[in-house]
Amino acid sequence: MTTLEGLDPALRTAWVDAFAHAGASQCGFCTPGILMRLAALSDRPAKPDAVRTSLLAHLCRCTGWQSIVDAADRVLAGDAPGDGAESTRPRDPLLAAWRAQVEGPAFQTSGAPVVLGQGGFASDTAPEGATVAICDDGRVSLADGLAGARRGLPKVQGRRSGVALRHPLEVPEGEWAITLQTTWVEPAYLEPDASWCLPGGVPSSPLANGGAFGGKRRSPVADEARRLADAEQRPVLALWTREEVVRRGPKRPPVAIGLRSDGTGVMRVAHPDGSADLAALHSAVAEVAPGLEIEERDVAGPPVGAELRGAGWAEAVVVLAALRARSAGPAGRGVPVEITGRTGGRAVVSIGDDDRVAVEVWAGEVLDETTLRSYCFGAVHQALGWVWSEGVAVDDDGRVQDLTVRSFGVLSARDTPEVTVTVHPSDRLPVNGSDAVFAATATAAWLADGLAPRWPTRRGAR
């Protein structure tokens, strides 16, 4: 077995530099494995679509694939970073981190150490000799090391259940110009929740080098680390299994929206037991769609959260933008969709006949164009999956049935269309641009599928 450390130094440097230059790594958790997979292509004859096919074994939720494909194409073509039309100016790590904070919003560094998997993940920063606690389905196994903790908790591997997706909320009765029903969507961040704590101390953040799309902001794993450290009177690293992340991590709240031609209507929002307060969602929707009345509904299901990317307000903006687009002409492909986000970032997105996505974004002072483009690529990928393919199967009692990353419908590299991003600089203060890209892409994807009233539109949902 060969790891990054065993690669030929020149080859490793070429790949790391290309990834750093293209912004092909954000949190960095998945990057070493992806880099090794692609580096193996260096010794093989070039084949059409070889890069995207090789990436089928991986998932990178942050970058949306395009920057990874760009970096790989450059290395395999023998080009040095900066060859071609892109800027060759050195990246300022402070400006890159600043732009990531604006887009995240969470602390995130970039550069060669992150590409190499040295992003400072919670598990990596635990004190040496800390007791490891693995948490899974209400059980906890403690041991002096990871291997021992795993042996103490027999693991039943999660599988794709084949259960059909459910839309838990019905659209309110009324005469609506547009309706929309969504289902539970898993954030699908790659680093499982983890936190360590000293007895009587403050637990480490599970966010590490990235924000996990808001999915970890209220993670109970930190409290579990504190409780176990106090009980054991020694440092404890608490880890969730992937299955535990899916069971207990907050999902995007399902909604059912009925919108009138004047922009007024009703948005029903699912709020299962155990979910955090959704006051932030109410406030965000009121900002962008004051004509929407919000109704929270108790339903059986996994917890939901208001801090997930654009939760609530993005759905509101999408139905309003779709209404405007349909009023201007037939819904379909090629219609440019313009969205202004809550902080003033603006995006125009169109989807062509071959599903190719063209993005223009205005986000104030650019700071670091590579970081901004990378976040926009990720926003496009997440929005396309949200509308076309993503969902979490839940049974009648509200229990999640699909517990693997591959069961969520996240678009693979091969199924993700080509994306181009044009960044428009300005002298304004930096504002978030990728959230506007996210909402505009979702609208364009929905228009491309004829405004089908249930999402996901391309995955046998009922």
Explained architecture:
This protein is α/β, with parallel strands linked by helices. The protein folds into 3 domains: 4-120, [2Fe-2S]-binding domain (DNA polymerase, domain 1); 124-156 and 193-240, no CATH class; 255-448, Aldehyde Oxidoreductase, domain 4 (2-Layer Sandwich), CATH 3.30.365. It has helices at 9-22, 31-39, 50-54, 66-76, 93-103, 112-115, 146-151, 221-232, 242-248, 279-288, 313-328, 369-388, 434-448; strands spanning 131-136, 139-143, 178-181, 194-197, 236-240, 255-259, 265-270, 292-297, 337-340, 346-351, 357-362, 419-424. Helix 12 links the parallel strand 11 (357-362) and strand 12 (419-424). Helix 1 (9-22) packs antiparallel against helix 4 (66-76), helix 11 (313-328) crosses helix 13 (434-448) and helix 12 (369-388) packs parallel to helix 13. The longest helix is centred in the last third of the chain and has 20 residues, at 369-388. It is globular and about 65 Å long. Mean pLDDT is 93; it is low at 83-88.
